[in-house]
Design a protein that fits this description.
Number of helices: 12
Number of domains: 3
Strand order of the largest sheet: 7-8-16-13-14-15
Number of strands: 16
Largest sheet: 6 strands, mixed
CATH topology of the largest domain: Rossmann fold
Shape: globular
Distance between the termini: 72 Å
CATH architecture of the largest domain: 3-Layer(aba) Sandwich
Helix content: 25-40%
Order of helices and strands: EHEEEHEEHEEHEHEHEHEHEHEEHHEH
CATH class of the largest domain: Alpha Beta
Radius of gyration: 21 Å
Length: 392
């Protein structure tokens, strides 16, 4: 007999690295479900099907098909396993606390962009500025890394992190909520207002002379070890990839299915590479290779807050497939953001501007259809930069 059980009640003593599970998780996405049950003993401990069990946890289902003893052949669709349950927003949006204001307020909005749509190309933006702590996609990463570390008993009274601003804002908020002291290390290129946001949230700010955040992650790791602080390290922590696979990708998929839209391509910026790698993995498998994925990086010699070049070192982008990487100058990113502001009336950040500019750069060679742009944040934090470009 095969029955469904709450995944939280089923236990496995086997540990897998993220890279070990991607093949199995990909099979499940392509199949749209599982084809075998998970064998368990009387205490609901997995005895057969460990990889499938952990892959289902990675994908974020609520229930798993189990059988006593050995696995049995059975097909159970992902929807039956509660695959989309975590990304359904409560209708009246009332929350018990500010942490619920984040994860129970998803999905973030998906909307058409008049300013960029043209010649049979319909452009949609998924706008991550609706996240409450940093007004950016980094709320997902900071929250998930911190929450999982808390569940594992790894959070001490000190938290150190290298950040260009947004992840730091989220971790400062998490630290404030949980009574932890946060010390955040910022690169020389981060806007001055970052210090104000982070200090207002109660964090200590350390300015580093290096221009790229990734360049001083090792220094932060050593200082954290010296002081007994937890260093979550967004650049290496697999929770960065997992949160976007479990939430961001599924949200977007559910929104598109609800709207009846089939995406030709998804375009987004490369920073840590967490969200675009997860989106690539999800959509390449769930849509069986029919969705193209384009990454966006700064052109050589240009600095665009929130994104960087692949050769500076990214963990997850090398585990997935990209159909292309588009280089964008800082000026092009700002100009595209201004165009969106003046035609669609929304203020997007520089990395969002880079994504918009990348779409415009490749639009002439795209087929008719629907295109999804991932806008990571809003433009309010970048007034210093915009002020040098805006003219009467």
């Amino acid at each position: 007999m095969v029955w469904l059980e709450n995944i939280e009640f089923v236990k496995s003593d086997v540990f897998y690295k993220l890279s070990d599970l991607l093949s199995v998780a990909g099979d499940i996405l392509r199949q749209g479900g599982v084809v075998k049950s998970i064998g368990v003993d009387d205490a609901l401990r997995v005895v057969e099907g460990h990889e499938v069990f952990h892959a289902l946890k990675l994908l974020g289902v609520r229930r798993v098909p189990i059988s006593r003893g050995r696995s049995k052949e059975v097909y159970v669709p992902l929807e039956t396993l509660g695959f989309y349950d975590d990304v359904a927003c409560p209708g009246l949006r009332v929350f018990d606390n500010t942490v619920e204001l984040l994860y129970k307020n998803w999905p973030t909005p998906l909307f058409k962009l008049r300013s960029l749509s043209r010649r049979g190309l319909t452009v949609w933006a998924k706008w991550e500025a609706y996240n409450p702590f940093s007004w950016s996609i980094k709320d997902r990463v900071g929250w998930y890394m911190f929450t999982k570390a808390l569940e594992e008993g790894r959070v001490s009274q000190l938290l150190y992190e290298a950040t260009s601003t947004n992840t730091g804002m989220t971790l400062a908020a998490m630290a404030a909520i949980h009574g932890v002291r946060a010390r955040l290390y910022l690169p020389s290129t981060a806007q001055k207002s970052s210090d104000v946001w982070l200090k207002t949230l109660g964090a200590e700010v350390v300015r580093v002379s290096k221009p790229l955040t990734v360049d001083f992650v090792g220094d932060v790791e050593r200082e954290a070890a010296r002081d007994g602080a937890i260093h979550l390290n967004q650049f290496e922590n697999d929770r960065n990839f997992e949160v976007h696979l479990k939430y961001t990708a599924k949200e977007l998929d559910l929104q598109l299915r609800h709207t009846g839209v089939f995406p030709r391509a998804i375009i987004g910026g490369l920073g840590t590479s967490g969200h675009m790698s997860a989106l690539s993995f999800y959509f390449k498998n769930r849509y069986r290779g029919s969705v193209k994925i384009y990454g966006v990086q700064p052109a050589v010699g240009h600095v665009i807050p929130g994104i960087r070049r692949i050769e500076t070192g990214m963990k997850w982008v090398h585990l997935v497939e990209l159909d292309g990487v588009v280089d964008i100058t800082r000026e092009d990113a700002v100009n595209a953001a201004i165009e969106v502001a003046r035609k669609d009336g929304i203020l997007i950040g520089l990395s969002s501007g880079a994504v918009a500019s990348a779409f415009l750069k490749i639009a002439d060679r795209l087929e008719e259809g629907h295109y999804i742009l991932i806008f990571p944040d809003n433009g309010l934090k970048y007034a210093e930069i915009y002020s040098t470009y805006v003219k009467d």
